[in-house]
Every structure is written in C-alpha cells, then in structure tokens.
Amino acid sequence: MLDASHASLPQPKSDNNTYHLGEIGDHNIVIACLPSGRYGLTSAAVVSQQMLSTFPAIEIGLMVGIGGGVPSSAADIRLGDIVVSKPTGLFPGVVQYDYGKAMGDGSFHRTGSLNSPPDRLLTAISDLEARHRLGNNKIAVHLQNAAKLHASIRESFTYPGVDEDILFDASYIHEDGKPTCSSCDRSHIVPRSPRESTTPSIHYGLIASANQVMKNARTRDKLGEELGILCFEMEAAGLMNHFPCLVLRGICDYSDSHKNKQWQDYAAATAAAYARELLEFSLPTTLLPSASDAVRIRSKIPISKSVFFGRKKELQQLQQLFDVEMHTRQAAVIWGPSGFGKTQLALEYLTSRDMDYEVILWVDSSSCTMVVEYFEQISLQLKSDTKSIKPGAELVVEWLERENRSWIIVFDGVESMGDDEKFDDLDIRDYFPASKHGHLLLVTTSSDLHLRLAYPGIEIQGVDDQTGASILLKCAGITCQNTSNNTVAMAISRKLRGMPLAIEQAGSYLSYGMSSMTDYKKHFETRFRETTLKTPMRKYVGSYEKGCTLWTTFDMLYNTLQQKSPDSARLLQLITFLGRGRIPFGIITGDREGSAQPAAEQFQPDHLANEQLSLVAPWLMELRCDTIQLAMAVRQLEVSGFVKLHRGQGDTLIESLGLHDLARSFLQSAVPQEDKLGMIASSFLLNGQQLYDGQHMPEESIIRTHMGRLTVVSEQFEEHIPNSMLQPPDGRFLPLCGRVAPLFARICRYRGKLDIAAQFWAIAIQHRALSRESLPNLEDLMESAEIDSRLGDLQGAIRKYSTVVSVCESDGLEDDRVYIRAVGCLRESRENRQRSEEHSRRVAVATSAPKSMPYTAIDEGEAREENWHSSDESA
C-alpha cells in the first residue's frame, strides 16, 4: 500500500521492534508488526511504546489488522468488510469486554474506560465516509493495484469468492478437529441476500477487545446485542490509553467455532487499503504554522519502574539549582559510577517538575549516532513555514533559542563507554542552545565533566544504610519491618557499599527464599557475593531492567574499555590488586609519598626490581615515560565509571583513585590466571616503593595511615604467590619483591602476624644476599632477629645478631647504638638458648626414667634434684 519504501534507520538496543519505513502521499509512514505468535493487549502495548520511543515525531496512529465480525440485523457484516472504531453513546470506540467484576447476582459489571481516537482522526473518517457515500470509494482500486505490483502475493490477497463466505446458525457448533467447514451440515447456513458488488462494505462503531479469542457464536450475539459490538479483536484495548489511535479491522471470520484462516490475508488487505485511502485523501499533512507558534513537546523518557528511595539531599540540590525564573539559563551535571541511580534521580526531578516545562527533551547520549538521530526525529515535530535543508539538531537548537520558551534537555550517558567509534569526535556543546533561558542537565560517569564545562556538579554516591535497607527489604518482599530485619538489612547494604543496583539484586536473590537474611549476611563474602551479582533481576523487582545485572554491566563496560584503550584495561587490572580504599596516584606514576620530585630523583632505583617489573608490566614503564599517553589512559578509566579520581581542592591534580569493592570482585575474576600472579607481585613492589626506598623505613604513623590498603596487598601476596616463585631455582619474583619485603614485614609485626613477618624477612635477606648490595641493613637485621627470638627461633636470632656485631666491629662501630644493642641481645639470646637446651635435656631425662619407683629407692640427693626440676618447670 506504500507509494515508496525508505531505508531503515538506527534504533536503540532497547527497541525490539522491526520497522518498515515508507510514504503514502505526503505522509512518512512507520510500520511495526506484533511479534510472531504473540498477541494480546500487552504485546500491542509494548510494541507501541517502543515505537513512540524510537519515533517521537509520530503524529497519527492506526491499528490495522483483522478481526471477527458480529453479524446482526442491524449490521450486515460480511467477510472482507472493514470495521472502523468510532465512539458510540456509551463507549469511546473500543471496549475491553472482559475487564470488570462479577456481581453477586451473577451479572458482570465492566469497569474502567479507554480513550477515544483523536479528534483529528474522527474528523478524517467522517470526511472519508462522506466521500464513499458520494461514490468516491477507491478501496477496490487500491487492492487491484497492490495485486498488480506484487504478483507473488496476488493469490493470497485476492477476494476468495462469495461461495466461501458462509455464516452458520449460532447454535450449530463446528466439528472438532476439522480444519475447514467442508464437512459441516449446510442446512445450518444462515440465508442472506446477495450483494451487488464484492467491494468491501465499511462499518463504523464499537470494537470489542480482550486477551482471549472469541469463538462462541452465542456469546458473540449476546455481547453484540448488549453493547452494540461490530467485531472482536485482541490488541486495541492495550493501546488506547497510551497510544491513542484509530482501529481498522478487516473481517476474517464470524467469531464462532467455524473460524479458520482462509479469509485472513484478504481481510488484512482490505483494512490496509482503507488506511491508505484515509491517509491519502482525508488526512492531509499537518499544516506548518509559523515558527513562532508555541509547540509543547514531551520527549519519550525512560519510565521509573520503582518507588524512588532516598536521594532527598541530591534532589533538593537539583531543585535549588533550577529553582529560578525560567528565563535564566541554568545547567547542572549529575555524575557517579554506573549502578548508583544517576538516571533515576534525573527522572524523579522531571516527574516532580513536569508542569514547569513546555518542552522536555531526553537525549540518549551514549553514542554519536543516537544523539544525531534523536534531534532529527524531534525536528520533524517542529513547525516551519518552509522545508529546511539544515540538520535536525540545528533546527531544534534554533527553535529553543527563541525567547519566552521554557525547556529542559537531559543528556543521559554523556561520555559513557559506548561502542560508537565516532563518539570522541562529538562535542556535546554543539547541542546546547545559545540562549539565556532554559535548563540543561547532563548525566555522566565522568568525575570532571562538570569542571571542564564549569557547571555545578552533583555527585551520586552510595545510599545511606537506612535507604539501602528499605530498598533491600522491598525487593526481597519482606513486609515485616521489625528492628532485627532492619538491622540485618542495613548491614547487607553496608557490605554492598550502598550501590542501589547491587542492593536490588541482593533483594531479588533473597526473594527466591533460598537463604535467610541473617545467613546471607554472615556468608556474603564466601558464598553469596558472586552468585548474587550474576543472578538476573526477577520480573517486577527493582527499578532496573530484568536482564540487567551488575555483572553484565561490568562485563559490558570492561569489554568496551579493552577495545577502546588496552592501556586503560591493563591499568585497571593493576589497580584491582593495589588494595582497597583510596590508592595514592603516585603508585601509578612512580612518585613517592610526600615528594614532588619524580621517582628517579628521590632515591637510587632498584635496577633488578625495575628490570623484573619491565618483564611483567612493560606497558606501565612505557606509560610512565609518556605523560600524555598516561593521561589518556586515566581519562578512559574515569569515563568507564570503574574508577573514581580524587583531585586536590586547590587544583585539578589527581591525588588518589578509588575502585568500588564490587567492581574489584568482578575484575579480579575477569583477569586471566596467567596475568594475575604478575599483577599481584607488581602491586607488592609498587605499594612498597611508594613508601620505602630500600634503606630508610617510614615512620610508624605513616605506615599506619596506609595500613588497611597494605594489609590487603600483603594478604593477597601470601595467598597467591607460591614459595617456589621466591626461591631458587625459579625465584622469578624474588628481585621484584625482595627490596620492599621489609616494609611488609613491619606491617605484619604491627598486626601481630610474626610468622608472616619472619617469612618476609627471609625474602628480604635472601634478596640482598643475591643482589649487588653486599652490605646488609643493620636495622633490618636487628628487627628480623628480634622476630626470630619472639618466635622461639633462637638459633636464627643468634646468627643475625652475630652478623650485626661482626659488621660493626669490622667497620669500627663499637660505639654505635646498634652495636651496643646487638651485643646485649646476642648475649641474652645465647643465655636463653643455653637455658632452653638445659631444660630440654632435663625433660628428656625425666621422660626416660621409669614411670613408678618404690619410695625407698629415692635417696635424699635424688629428691633434691627432682624438686629443682619441678621448680624450674614452674619458672
């Protein structure tokens, strides 16, 4: 029925429809079909909503298809006829006959109401009806032209013939299992007067809609008589309140048990022919008034799927920023990691201030293509005296720049990790109207976009514990709001660091009833963390899409990052193992804490360690030598939303960076096993070098400042790096880790982990023995010896104290405090060893003696010896 077909256009990933584009007369046409095999009110509603979202400039809606007729004395409906929805006295053109409530007397009371077709369409059908009465009916011509143009479908869409149009008595039921009516008793056929022409008749009135097929002739007649229904179908009621349209149905059966598919193609063709004639003759293209005329445009915005929790402070900030006279230009940026509810906040603001704006534009800014296409669609809604060859974005921006117009544009996903290769060439400012009125709201993962644009920024962090608990309990379906449940829910929210998406997933997981909240909290780290975050959201639970999980979100961002910037991806892998909390940026650049000098000027580097680092992370050494390349890699990290950069208050210098614990869990599982050990060993070296130069141990207060992060680094080193990689013949990580091992030994000592501290000292001492540093650090040897002594390894302690004494004596350092302390400790250790050996000897003698002896066999001397032994044991 189209005059011409058009090429397909890009559409959002969230739109599952398939469209055929074309034109009839001066109208641009968008056609979408229901999914094969899926019918009913819901399916139609979904298709229409996605269509309106992708094509917001749509002005006219037609629901074209087939239906079951209701023949009666009042309406001589035949197969192939067309029924057009038109308001009657009681109903607006469509009635959902199965929606209501059963009354006590057995009657059925219908409730609710649907919208009427738009007045413009009702006027158009009145005009077309008048044309047809005057004999100007072109439907048969359209059918013939279609058959000529498309010979392959000619047979299917041709009139089946008068003899095939059979109406049986309502009391006569079709035989089960028979595909056609060839075996039906023809004595039950209802006699009807023949028509003069096979041209379809057109009936205007009420169409009945429901989720079920009408196949009962008696029910058909009962409802037809009661409500004045002309035909039955299964989709229209799902559209009328959300997609006001005109419903056109070609009659393919009589809504009885004899229904079959013989007439369906032809009936569809007759309805389509009516649609063409309506568009061609009775619905001229919208007149384009002057551009000064006001147009109220409401962009299709995402619909919040859940109750808005918390964020009162952020919402108040946003309202205050925009709570000014509309003629004053205002802008703001909402920023934060993925999954924290940035878009939800923007939606809540628009919901609360909807009536304040004449124009609301919601721009999916995740790709250059989406932005350009969006403004092209919006430009079609604008009113212009003449057709323009300007790009759609330019037309929209110029239109918004005019005075006395209240508008807001929301750019969602600015500088996100989209897969559009042209995105870096997009300057979002090109889409900002150059006016002193209107509002701009940008939503992004970038932490410095607001600084670059000089706009106020609203940071979205994790929700507070109470808000997190409310989200969790709601998604879990827990209605018992007692103190115990609330306390446990708050604890779970804290474990998830207040990330709304993660909390909703946890609630969705709990709603399955496979674990109690208490057990979930107790075993979250060991059993539930990864399982929960991989579990898809249950239907109708939470505010995010059903297929959306934190794991899939992270996976998508990570894969895109790997494609766009391999350096950024490798840097992210390394950051994953650099510990928790704020990670000093100097660890990445190689600058030591507390120094503005480059690492090379602060202390003589450990060439062996740096050579080894070059083997496992050559890319990091290259990035350190190329400041611009490093800056670009860090920028991509920030844009990805994985990493949050913390800058100085006085300038934009990056001081530290942070990674959410849940992102760390995902990334550690995503790093290939063969790369993981190198990353862990590199993290050990880099964290150590940032505080320790291999000679001078930092003060205790400095170490304790970084204790949390360094403890994580130490524990992952202990867990994953096997001893074989630190000892000959392999020993690949000994040069990498040996120099900074004393720092981690000190940390373990502070934590009371003396056995682990001793292991780190062993690594450090062996490293020095094998490296070009011939002289040991005496203070380090003293500390290592002290730990050996406290662990009971007196032989090891004596050996190390002796080494310190020997070195001091050979260097003439007898007056040095280290020498004096070493001599005292050596003497004490030897005495302790002597006592220990004597004690062991006596224990051995006692255990080797007979278990019982006659009392008279013990003389006085032996008794004294036994008493001395007992006293020694007590001491």
Automatic annotation (TrEMBL):
Pfam families per the record? NB-ARC
**What is the name of the protein in this document?**
NB-ARC domain-containing protein
Q: Specify residue ranges for compositional bias: Basic and acidic residues.
A: 831-841, 864-875
> Which biological process terms from the Gene Ontology are attached to this UniProt entry?
nucleoside metabolic process
Where in the numbering of this chain does the NB-ARC domain appear? 316-446
Region of interest (Disordered), ranges: 831-875
Q: Name one GO molecular function term.
A: catalytic activity
State the source organism's domain of life.
Eukaryota
Q: What InterPro entries does the record tag this protein with?
A: NB-ARC (IPR002182), NLR-like (IPR053137), Nucleoside_phosphorylase_sf (IPR035994), P-loop_NTPase (IPR027417)
Q: Which regions form coiled coils?
A: none
Q: What organism, scientifically named, is this protein from?
A: Aspergillus sydowii CBS 593.65
